[in-house]
Amino acid sequence: xxxxxxxxxxxxxxxxxxxxxxxxxxxxxxxxxxxxxxxxxxxxxxxxxxxxxxxxxxxxxxxxxxxxxxxxxxxxxxxxxxxxx
Length: 85
Known about the structure:
rod-shaped; mainly alpha; single chain
């Protein structure tokens, strides 16, 4: 049977170990929170890039359709895109 003093030392040791583990876990939580925010920022940036590329694609498609229409109208003998003979 252990004495009260030995039990107290064991409990203090357990408490010190738990405290150390808690500090480690708090540190890990801070790292996870920073990584999460970094990931959110990257996702936001990528979403902006996708939007920009989509807008650019639509602009180029509009330009292509306009050029094709103009070429077609000129092939019909129009002198300007608005004048079809």
